[in-house]
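Narrative of activities, Objective 1.

The group set out to show that a structural description can be obtained from nothing but a protein's sequence at a throughput compatible with the screening campaign. Below is one input-output pair from the validation batch, recorded exactly as produced.
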Amino acid sequence: MSHTTMLSWVTFLYFAAFVFYLFRMILGREFWGKAATGAALAGLAAQSVALALRWRASYDLGFGHAPLSNFYESLIFFAWTIVLLYLLMERRLKNRSIGVFVLPVAFLIMAYASIAPGMNQRIEPLIPALQSNWLTSHVLTCFMGYAAFTVAFALGVMYFVKKAAGLKPGVFIRLLPSEFQIDELMYSCAALGFIFLTLGIVTGSVWAHYAWGSYWSWDPKETWSLITWLIYAVMLHTRLVRGWRGRRMAVMSMVGFGCMLFTYLGVNLLPSLHSYMS
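Output recorded for this entry:
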């Protein structure tokens, strides 16, 4: 089975995991939760194998490099980091309810990578700007930060669902964490993402110095990365200094996620030194 076919199956596995998590929330039966975790784990394992096969295929073609060099590969890796981070969180918290808010994002990313018109799925040699050992460290740290911000966004959505559903308690509301727990998790994910994004900006700056002779050139991608960094810095600062919690933190997580998405996707529409990622 080729890595492309395997990634197509991963898309369906993530969708199945989302459906099973949803069944668990609606029906309140743990059987569906176990099935959801199993589907998510199977999808993550298959996706890991597919990424490894794609990596190996690049060496077979004579220009081996990590599968992180174009927009398609970045989407696949983004979904992988989201599911990995979520499953680690689920294992630690022993709570599967967050999956119904996180897995749809991973599924949509995989689906977009598969069906978006004009998506380049070919394995191609790296352009000179990408021929650096900084590529893996920069992309890895950035996307781990993006994954943490995505989970924080999902927790923000969960917070508002919890508030709305609290007016009409049902089976599924008892399966959700308390508002205090959601708030704490949202803060922890935002802080983790902030650390990784900081490392991503630093490694990107060093890489830019070697590639273009300047640590910072106010490229659209760089500018919006800084804007995203500042928004999460404000979010963490207001939490520690002003004591913001609950609704305000949920709103900030959504605003930050929107800026992160624009940093990742929106600036590709603008002239940029990072246009090779489109």
